# Entry
Amino acid sequence: QVQLVESGGGLVQPGGSLRLSCAASGTITGFYIMGWYRQASGKEREWVARVFSSGSADYADSVKGRFTISRDNAKKQVYLQMNSLKPEDTAIYYCYAQLSSGYNYWGQGTQVTVSS
# Structure
């Protein structure tokens, strides 16, 4: 059994920063990919960023240059540093962890609200 638990969401003003964390627990010793999706109210889920076990990372164009993803393989944790936040970044952010087989585990989500 694997569980992913996100933390770090909240309310922030435009231009501000937040750091999301996601911790994996359970019997899996490692994940091929860890990353984040987000879903704004009334919209489809959108991929945000991912980081491979090697440390290489990819970003959606909408967050490139503002968000930074990182991971700690030993702790089975992934982080998302979000800077220069915009109102359009408001969404529920979901952590995911993918095995080399392609199977995904999901967190329960954490709300990020960017508003003045």
